[in-house]
Design goal:
Length: 108
């Protein structure tokens, strides 16, 4: 499990969504984004910008939950680098209308 994500335990109110739910760990950056989004004085342009940033954090953490394998690649300088790659391809599907907000961030 990623350091940016916390597992929901059975005493958490979020547990009603199932034991596999993971919450994005709250930190100062996430709280600032949430504050800007909740501020009634935030302009529409800023709201979209900061909502996209928060969505990007959620998508990035979701990708961190996928299985990886180690791999070796040759760098342009001829050295080998031990890295990681996804075990399988990944696919994102918008299943509700509001999910469309995440599509642009996911494909960029």
């Amino acid at each position: 499990m990623s350091a940016q994500c916390e597992k929901v335990n059975s005493t958490s109110p979020a547990y009603e969504f199932g034991p596999k739910l993971k919450l994005l760990r709250s930190n100062d950056q996430v709280r600032e984004l949430q504050t800007i989004l909740r501020d009634k004085n935030t302009s529409r342009t800023d709201f979209k910008f900061y909502a996209d940033r928060l969505i990007r954090l959620v998508i990035e953490e979701s990708l961190n939950q996928l299985p990886f394998d180690t791999c070796m690649v040759m760098t342009p300088t001829g050295n080998y680098y031990k890295g990681t790659k996804y075990q399988r391809g990944n696919c994102g599907v918008s299943i509700v209308r509001s999910g469309e907000a995440m599509e642009q961030v996911r494909i960029s």
